[in-house]
Amino acid sequence: MDHRLIQPASRDQIVAIIRQRAERANRDLPAHLGQALFPAPAFIDFPGRDRAREADRPPVYRQAALAPEEEVKPRTERLAVVGSSLQYKGERGLPGLYIASLPLTVDKPYYEVEITKSEGSSGGGGPVIGLCSHRYPLDLLPGWTAESVGYHTGDGKLYKGRPRGQPFGPRCEAGDRVGCGVKFEVVAKNSGLHASMVPVFFTKNGKELGTQLIPCPPGGLFPAIGLQREPEEVVLSLDLRWAPEEDIAMSVDCGEEEWRRLHDIRLNGQMLEYVGRGKSLIDVGLAQAKTPLSTRSHYFEIEILDPGSSCYIAIGLARKDYPRNRHPGWNKGSIAYHADDGKVFMGSGVGDPFGPSCNKGDVMGCGVLFPRDFESKSDSEEEGELVVRLVENQGDTEEYETDSGEEEEWWRPDVKQGDKVQVYFTRNGKIIGKKEVLLPKGGFYPTVGMMSSQEKVRVELKPLSG
User: Fold this and answer.
1) Is the Cβ–Cβ distance between 153 and 176 less than 8 Å?
2) Cβ(150)–Cβ(157) below 8 Å
3) Are strands 419-427 and 397-399 parallel, antiparallel or unpaired?
4) What is the model's pTM?
5) Distance of alpha carbon 110 from its chain centroid, rounded?
6) Tens digit of each residue's pLDDT, the chain (466 residues)
7) Is residue 109 within 8 Å of 184, Cβ to Cβ?
8) Taking the alpha carbons of 25, 27, 31, 35 in that order, is the dihedral positive or negative?
9) What value, to the nearest 5°, has the Cα angle with vertex 294 and ends 194 and 463?
10) Which residues, other chains included, contact 418 with Cβ-Cβ below 8 Å and sequence gap of 6+?
């Protein structure tokens, strides 16, 4: 073996090695990803790079440099545009892209495409419909980098500013009409929305699929269509009016800003839909409200729109940091009424008989009866473990540890326990039963759990406020 001394590499050698690896990584990626995933390190001297300028402004995403005359024209690449028809005409592996000349506005907030030819059923393909900035790069599908969103009709996933999608809606095929729009009226009515965020919705054959809050770039969001391979073809309609159905035309009074956590659950106005796998006990979808119940808002309800395959739906209360993949009631610091078997679960995987089971059309409710002299601390942002002491029929108390199994603050004698309240559950307006509990710091957060495919519920977080 040769034991020659290894000389340390110079800075120029290190830079050359990193440059080679970055270039090699880009060549190995699918061509339509371009530089989005592997930007070159900022300190490498690539030709034409202005290092001083880059140091002052960190690169976030790529934008196309447009000539002035192109600012007012539709932008296309690897597409044949025949009237309102868009046909893919490119190399395999590179997407065809169409970006409209004008953004969506209050007067024209919606557009649609009709899929005339699609290869999405064979896997990995299918038209993509969405919105993006006008300077969006033409070698990336809508939704694959910042300032864009795209619904992939081939697999039903939604891409929001990164090349990794999330389950969103059904797959689409030839003959389907797919639409995309912005709910400008919601922005005008809801002062709680951030100025740069707008609710974007998608439709299939006239029915709304869901709404997502999307960052709006300067200049607005432009209709964008991506085609991935031959013989994909769509017919574009930019001058359509969207007339939502009554049962889906919901304001965002119970919108995304009302929820602290949504895990494997899709939010559409007041509707929650389970989008997880639904194959095992770890596939629970959890929705937890942002604000705990208080004396001003002490009750909430859900209506079962679709029980799914098994109606594994639960309504209850849980601590702020409750595990996201556990049904409410299964773990310490929670209590819940389960629709499938009518049992109440109180910090344990074993439930107790409580009331009737529930199914499609049933309305399940959960509330707290606070004592008359109770001082609401609902606006407090105090952290701390939510630990429930359950008292049945004024009998012996049973205290539950938190999930960690370690000694928590609430075990210590110098930590004051919370006020005693009653948690009650209802079915179709009738009270099923009550459980007396101690309410510690942090409060009870409305929580909904779901675990089987196709489950849907409509939520009213403040049904008594009207």
Assistant:
1) yes
2) no
3) unpaired
4) 0.44
5) 21
6) 444 444 555 666 666 666 666 555 554 444 444 433 334 333 333 334 444 444 444 434 455 555 555 556 899 999 999 988 999 998 777 899 999 999 999 999 999 999 998 875 555 689 999 999 988 999 899 999 888 999 999 988 999 998 888 888 888 988 899 999 999 888 777 655 555 788 999 999 888 888 888 888 888 999 999 999 888 999 999 988 776 644 333 333 445 678 888 888 988 888 999 988 888 888 899 999 999 998 888 999 999 999 999 999 999 999 888 888 899 999 888 899 999 999 999 888 899 999 999 999 999 999 998 887 666 544 333 333 333 333 333 333 333 333 333 333 332 333 334 577 889 999 999 999 998 877 767 889 999 999 999 999 999 998 876 5
7) yes
8) positive
9) 75
10) 438, 439, 440, 441
> Which residue in 405, 223, 438, 251 sits closest to 331, CA to CA?
405
Could you tell me how many residues make up the chain? 466
Query: What is the residue whose two structure tokens read 């065809």?
Result: 96
Q: Which two tokens stand for residue 294?
A: 């208080």
96 forms beta bridges with: 227
Distance in Å from the first CA to the final CA of the chain: 84
For the record, the structure tokens of 62 come out as 């790529």
